[in-house]
Amino acid sequence: MAKINSAALGKEPIGRLLIQQAAPASIGILVMSLNILIDTIFVGNWIGPTAIAAINVVLPVSFFIAALGMAIGIGGSSIISRALGANQQQKALKTFGNQITLTLLLCISMVIVGLIFINELIPAFGGKGEIFEPAKIYYRVVLYGIPFLALCMMGNTVIRAEGKPKFAMIAMIIPSVGNLILDYVFINQMEMGMLGAAWATTASYFFCFGYILWFFLSKKSELKISLPHFGIDFPILKEISSLGFVTLARQAVVSITYLLMNNILFELGGENSVTVYAIIGRMLMFALFPVLGVTQGFLPIAGFNYGAQNYQRVRKTINTAVLYAVGLGILVFVGIMFFAEDIVGIFTDNAVIIAETPGAMRWVFAATPIVALQLIGAAYFQAVGKAIPAFLLTLSRQGFLFIPLVLILPQFYGEIGVWISFPIADLLSTMVTGYFLNREIRKNLKPTV
């Protein structure tokens, strides 16, 4: 067994280390987000605006199943990072083996259930009227590839926990580039419509899985597991589940949010309003890539140094990550405020959608500069293995605040009530997270002599 060596996470200067970890993560998220963005542009221009709404309807289901892999990955990677910091190599290996076993069991079961209830799930998530048929076509094919996506999401976080962010970046780039190429071939050249969009997406998951499988089987990875590591270890499984549940709950809330938004907006403005939200949702995924990259880069550094009981480096990691993320959030905010109309024009030439989307987009991004603090704060508790505060703070933004707001405000203010729910939830959740993070730093991260 090769010796696991992630010592750089505990020795390199924090600023440089965070850039080294965050830059590949940011690039990977950027390429993945560009894939989603350009995919939406292709679909909107080559198939039509209804196709954009159809894909948006399918996202909650595919997101939730893929989130199982992400949750298991992040939960297990938190254990792996701390185990590496504490030089507990066998625990790291056993955790990785259990991650694979758990991902396969849960995701395959979810796919089977998703296919059985296909006709019930699509309308429940807003696939009504003209949206139903194209959504059903897309849903069925994409669901076949979701287990591979879940394994990719899980494996990607483990690669980062090893301290190898460049390989994690490549793993995110491969399916993005593959999807765009296949979009052009299947939709534009072969004129396969929604079926082509679905197979392009599914095939891209296969490409990503192939690369990640190669990484762990090659000498690039230091996590050389064998058959006994796949056997369920219940204490490890319990820790993976408690920490992974935070991510799963967050993604479940994302799926619930899509469900509510699609249905509320369909009632308020029909297919066009659902399309407006679909475009804004793509921009949320795309525009926040540098902030999300800093958050991803922050996780292994904080987890490793917390495991090594180097609390002064943990404090410095938090401060540096918040500074970087807030600065990047300000740049995103300025870009959206000034170029909203130009951005929307890229997606469609539908006059109604072009008129309605920019104002809504500005409301949704109004609190972007301060969201960085909320993301870093919630990520800290997950990185150090404190599942309950991580769970509560992660859900505070969309679960405890946004969902009640989006159910109440539209009753008084109509569609504008939907959009102003975003910045209000962002502001309140950031205030709560800031309070608890500050208390944690003062109480449990005291510098040691």
Features:
449 residues, mainly alpha, disordered N terminus
Plain-language structure description:
The chain is mainly alpha-helical. It has one domain (about 15-445). Helices cover about 85% and strands about 0% of the residues. It is built from 14 helices and no strands. Helix 1 (about 15-45) packs antiparallel against helix 2 (about 50-85), helix 2 runs parallel beside helix 5 and helix 8 packs parallel to helix 13. The longest helix has about 55 residues, at about 235-285. Mean pLDDT is about 85; it is low at about 1-5.
Short overview:
This protein is 85% helix and 0% strand. It is mainly alpha-helical and 449 residues long. Helix 4 crosses helix 5 (132-161), helix 5 (132-161) packs antiparallel against helix 6 and helix 10 (311-347) runs antiparallel to helix 11 (351-364).
Helix content: over 70%
Shape: globular
**Overall average residue pLDDT:** 84
- Secondary structure: number of strands: 0
Q: DSSP helix count?
A: 14
What topology emerges from the helices and strands here?
Layout: H1 14-46, H2 49-85, H3 89-116, H4 118-124, H5 132-161, H6 165-189, H7 193-217, H8 234-287, H9 289-307, H10 311-347, H11 351-364, H12 368-383, H13 387-413, H14 415-444
